[in-house]
């Protein structure tokens, strides 16, 4: 069997579905990427054309979820953009008026490295009943991996040595070459599937929201919708982190004060 080729019309339909579902604009340069990421599914179902796969995606919700999982880009690592974690550790936690619990939402958490990085700091600085972290992502596979908390050993290098010593367990046997996040953090954490285009109104309120390295995938209108939606869940006076490589230039940020590059505070 020759390798199926993704035709332009088929690509446009995938673009449309992915935009509707995830809000992500796959530009025309992504055609080969889409072709190669979805090829696995064609081989799995023994389909000879992408049209056959499209038909399945259109009638089968589980396959649509699988398609979204395959098309999202989930690159992440521990303590990515260290300045945010230093700000959290040195400026935010020590001065924050702790009411009941310090609550963080890692929105678009991928496999959870961002959420666990923050958890190691909070657990070091606060009592167990004083913090909570929720990680969400549209991709159900990464959420499953985040719940497990098992990572390749090479990822551990980004974790500061004193935290590595306290929270990372070296894998043995079938987990040789991996490390596991210490289970002591798990009771304070939750990972859930969640679409930033459709945040439940009862999702709760947070003191700090990470929304990093995901806005780049959206157009301005979607960025506005996502930031507005996320802001509904930030407490007045709460903080909001985007990536250093992103900006909010083209959208309305009324009610948000820029503290420094990529760090914002909700007024009130
Ligand atoms: C590049 S990763 C960023 C991970 C982490 N925030 C970081 O900065 O390392 C982007 C994540 O956004 C997720 N994502 C994309 N569109 C989304 C949407 N509409 N709702 C929720 N998550 C989404 C992807 O599945 C992916 O895991």
From TrEMBL:
GO terms for biological process: methylation. CDD domains: AdoMet_MTases. The keyword S-adenosyl-L-methionine applies. It is an enzyme of class 2 (transferase). InterPro entries: Bact_Chemotaxis_MeTrfase (IPR050903), Chemotaxis_MeTrfase_CheR (IPR026024), CheR_C (IPR022642), CheR_MeTrfase (IPR000780), CheR_N (IPR022641), CheR_N_sf (IPR036804), SAM-dependent_MTases_sf (IPR029063). It catalyses: L-glutamyl-[protein] + S-adenosyl-L-methionine = [protein]-L-glutamate 5-O-methyl ester + S-adenosyl-L-homocysteine. Keywords: Methyltransferase, S-adenosyl-L-methionine, Transferase. Residues 1-268 form the CheR-type methyltransferase domain. Its EC number is 2.1.1.80. GO terms for molecular function: protein-glutamate O-methyltransferase activity. This is protein-glutamate O-methyltransferase. It comes from Sulfuricurvum kujiense (strain ATCC BAA-921 / DSM 16994 / JCM 11577 / YK-1).
């Amino acid at each position: 069997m020759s390798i199926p080729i993704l035709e332009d019309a088929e690509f446009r339909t995938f673009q449309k579905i992915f935009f509707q579902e995830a809000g992500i604009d796959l530009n025309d340069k992504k055609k080969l990427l889409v072709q190669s990421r979805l090829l696995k599914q064609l081989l799995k179902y023994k389909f000879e054309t992408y049209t056959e796969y499209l038909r399945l995606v259109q009638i089968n919700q589980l396959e649509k979820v699988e398609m979204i999982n395959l098309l999202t880009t989930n690159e992440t690592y521990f303590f990515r953009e260290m300045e945010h974690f230093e700000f959290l550790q040195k400026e935010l936690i020590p001065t924050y008026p702790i009411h009941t619990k310090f609550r963080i939402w890692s929105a678009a958490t991928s496999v959870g490295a961002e959420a666990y990085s923050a958890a190691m700091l909070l657990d070091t600085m606060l009592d167990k009943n004083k913090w909570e972290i929720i990680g969400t992502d549209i991709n159900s596979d990464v959420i499953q991996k985040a719940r497990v908390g098992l990572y390749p050993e090479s990822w551990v290098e980004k974790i500061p040595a004193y935290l590595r010593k306290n929270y990372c367990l070296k894998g043995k046997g079938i987990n040789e070459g991996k490390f596991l996040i210490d289970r002591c953090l798990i009771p304070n954490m939750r990972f859930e599937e969640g679409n930033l285009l459709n945040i439940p109104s009862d999702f709760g309120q947070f003191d700090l929201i990470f929304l990093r390295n995901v806005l780049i995938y959206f157009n301005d209108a979607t960025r506005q919708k996502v930031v507005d939606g996320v802001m509904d869940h930030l407490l007045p006076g709460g903080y909001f982190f985007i990536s250093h490589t992103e900006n909010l230039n083209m959208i309305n940020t009324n009610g948000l004060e820029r503290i420094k590059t990529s760090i914002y505070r909700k007024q009130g």
